[in-house]
Amino acid sequence: MELLDKAALNALQPPDFRNESSLASTLKTLLFFTALMITVPIGLYFTTKSYVFEGAFGMSNRDSYFYAAIVAVVAVHVVLALFVYVAWNEGSRQWREGKQD
Fold first, then answer.
1. What totals of helices (H) and strands (E) does the chain contain, helices first?
2. Are 2 and 40 contacting, i.e. CB atoms less than 8 angstroms apart?
3. Which pLDDT belongs to residue 100?
4. Residue 26: its H or E element
5. If you average pLDDT over residues 15-29, what whole number do you get?
6. Which one of 7, 16, 45, 83 has the minimum C-beta count within 10 Å?
7. Residue 44 has what pLDDT?
8. At 87, phi and psi to the nearest 5?
9. DSSP string, 35-81
10. In whole angstroms, what is the distance from residue 20 CA to residue 17 CA?
């Protein structure tokens, strides 16, 4: 009987909200890198096409498309690498904090 009472008391305890801040932090990180993934490559594509390749280097319209696309692809890879780095460090930090509890 006493075992059932302990189980009932454990069921009535408020839920543990420590992970809520972790979830909010993860969501903020994901949204931040999603915004970066959309804006950085597109912005670099048009900026480098207009101002760098056509403006400064005097390339033709066709060549500037090609090189601007390469810059945008490199930007995508940089943003992805940064996301993996931040996610890896955030996960290991949360793991260490959970391990100390």
1. 3, 0
2. no
3. 59
4. helix 18-47
5. 72
6. 16
7. 97
8. -65, -40
9. HHHHHHHHHHHHHIIIIIIIIIS---HHHHHHHHHHHHHHHHHHHHH
10. 5
User: Residue 18: enclosing H or E segment and its boundaries?
Assistant: helix 18-47
How far apart are alpha carbons 49 and 61 in whole angstroms?
Answer: 8
Give the closest residue to 49 by CA, choosing from 65, 70, 35, 73.
Answer: 65
To which residue do tokens 């075992």 refer? 3
Sign of the C-alpha dihedral computed for residues 72, 77, 82 and 84 taken in this order? positive
pTM across the whole model: 0.70
In the DSSP assignment, the letter for residue 14 is P
- The answer to whether residues 40 and 79 touch, using CB atoms and an 8 Å cutoff, is yes
